Structures are given as structure tokens and as C-alpha cells.
Amino acid sequence: MDGRFEVVFLGTGSPLDQSGHRCGAGQVVVAGETHVLVDCGWGAARRLRPSGIVPALIDVALFTHMHTDHITDVPDFLFQRWTSGATKPLQVFGPEGTAEMMEGFLLALRRDIGYRKAHHGDKLHPDGIRAEVTELPVTKRPATFLELGGLRFESFEVDHYPVVPAFGYRAVFEGRSLVLSGDTVFCETLAEAAKGTDMLVCEALNLPMIDEVIAMLKAAGREREASLLGDVPSYHIETNEVARLAREAEVGELVLSHLIPPVLNDSEREAAFVEGMDGIYGGRIRVARDMQRIPVTKRA
Ligand SMILES: [Zn+2]
Ligand SMILES: [Zn+2]
């Protein structure tokens, strides 16, 4: 039996500075033969093949919230999944707003779906481009909504106000557990869901680095963008707060993704990004990169 349980990072960046090295939020949780996509921001779909993932193997997609950096590659993903051989509708789960988002994307694709069917005939299964959406209830504690091939997924609310509702997810497979924070500030629901988990994948904002970007924008006369960026820290979690949460929740190890700002794939910049965290949290801290696979291992 294939007991692998890992996270494949498609996009580890954030909306700022949309340079190519870190795409919008997206990851695939692989548990045995089951592949679950969690978010699909800009560029995430094009990371699938180079990450060794056949899009048609993904039968389930989850969304944490409806911010653009988590959803705008959905159309490309749907087509890649269809053309790589999907024969069943995609099962989609997410907060309120997910159904509207999927309907909107499928409406935008409606003409092309017709062209492809006309051109390729029965080489493309008509069900492979469909989606069945379930909007999940808002719960403070993790609530199970999916059990597939031994993998269990639970959802819980996080605090990304004014984005309401916004979810984090917890996955359990063969006695190992994984929590994905979604976008959030420090909140008790995340700390509780992460309690004792083997691996926490958390978003993170480095405040001194954001202040540097704001100063650069101001110096370049880009006052409006500097001012918009000044609003960003209020609904994200700072690196030291991530470390505090990991310590309080006694998580086995910590992986940072959705980096704000999206630092270069450079070990020095990544070390600067996490500076100070190891003084607060004693476990292993990693900064994920696009197309990296990180296994969920049982905590020591
Ligand atoms: Zn967000
Ligand atoms: Zn985001």
C-alpha cells in the first residue's frame, strides 16, 4: 500500500510583486492515491505538470476563501484536468461564495467547452469538465466533510476579516496530521485545530520587509500602492506570531508558504524572512518553494 502523505507546493507567494519565482497560493495534498488541490491562485495550474502531478488525478478541490490570489487559475486547472483525461466531475468544497465562483468561471469557459467538444468529439469525456460544489458550514472546531481513500479532511473558520467566511483545513491520513492555515491573523480556532499536529503549513508576513517595500514605493512616488500595502498586515499573521502559535499548539514542524512579501528563492533571503522565529518556536521551520514536495512525518 502506498502510504505517502505529502504536500506539493504549487504556489508559495502572495499578490505582491507578481514575479515568476513564487506563484499564487496552491498546493496538492497527496495521500496514497488520493490527490486534493487546495486553492488555485495565479500560476498554480502551470506548476502541476512540472511538479509531477497529472491534473486528471485530482478529483477534489478545496478553497480557503475567495481572494483572487487563491482562485484565478481555476479555469486553466479545469481545462488541464479535462484534457489530461478526467472522466468524473470535480468535487469542490469551500466557504460560501465557492458555488458562485465556480459557476462564474464555467460560464466564462462555456463557449470554449463547446468548441473543444465539437473539435475533439468523444476524446474528451463530457463529465470531465463539470464540477459539483458543496459549500461548507462555518465551524469554530474542525468538522469532517470528506473521507476518501483513508484521507479525512476537516474545515474550520479562521480570521481573515473582512473576508468572511475564510477557512483553514486539517487533514489526517494513517495516523499523521496536517493543518493548512489559509489566510488569517493569529486566532484561537487555528491554534486549536493545530494542537499537536505533525505539520502546520502557515501563511506568514514579515513586517520589517513589508515596511521596506512600503518605503521603496513611497520613494518612487507610488503613494497609493504604498497606502494599500499599509492595509495588508491587519489581516495576515506576522512571522513571530506564527512561531508563537506553533509553540502554543506544540506542532511537530512548521512550513511557511504564502510569503508576504514573496522573497526570492534564496536561502539568505529566506533566512532573513524567518529571523527571530527560532527563538520562540523550537521545532523545525522551513520556507516552502514552488514545486517542492514536503512529506508529513510523525512528530518525534
Ligand atoms: Zn486572502
Ligand atoms: Zn492570499
Summarize the model shown:
The chain is an alpha/beta fold and 300 residues long. It has one domain: Ribonuclease Z/Hydroxyacylglutathione hydrolase-like (Metallo-beta-lactamase, Chain A). Helix content is 26%, strand content 30%.
Explain this structure to me?
The protein is of the alpha/beta class. It has a single domain, classed as Metallo-beta-lactamase, Chain A (4-Layer Sandwich). The protein is 26% helix and 30% strand. A 7-stranded mixed beta sheet has the order 6-5-4-3-2-1-14, with helices on one face. Strands 7-8-9-10-11-12-13 form a 7-stranded mixed beta sheet. The site of one zinc ion has 5 residues, from loops.
Key features of this structure:
single chain, 300 residues, alpha/beta, Metallo-beta-lactamase, Chain A, 7-stranded mixed β-sheet, 30% strand, binds zinc ion
Span from first to last CA? 23 Å
Percent strand equals 25-35%
Assembly state of the chains shown: single chain
Count of alpha/pi helices = 7
| Number of domain modules | 1
Order of helices and strands: EEEEHEHEEEEEHEHHHEHEE
Biggest sheet: strands side by side, in what order? 6-5-4-3-2-1-14
Here the CATH topology equals: Metallo-beta-lactamase, Chain A
Coarse structural class: alpha/beta
> Looking at this structure, what is the CATH superfamily?
Ribonuclease Z/Hydroxyacylglutathione hydrolase-like
Query: Which sheet architecture does the biggest sheet show?
Result: 7 strands, mixed
Shape, principal axes of CA atoms:
globular
Briefly, what CATH class?
A: Alpha Beta
Number of strand segments: 14
The hetero compounds bound to this protein are: zinc ion
* pLDDT averaged residue by residue: 96
Poorly predicted residue ranges: none
Helix content: 25-40%
Whole-number radius of gyration?
19 Å
CATH architecture: 4-Layer Sandwich
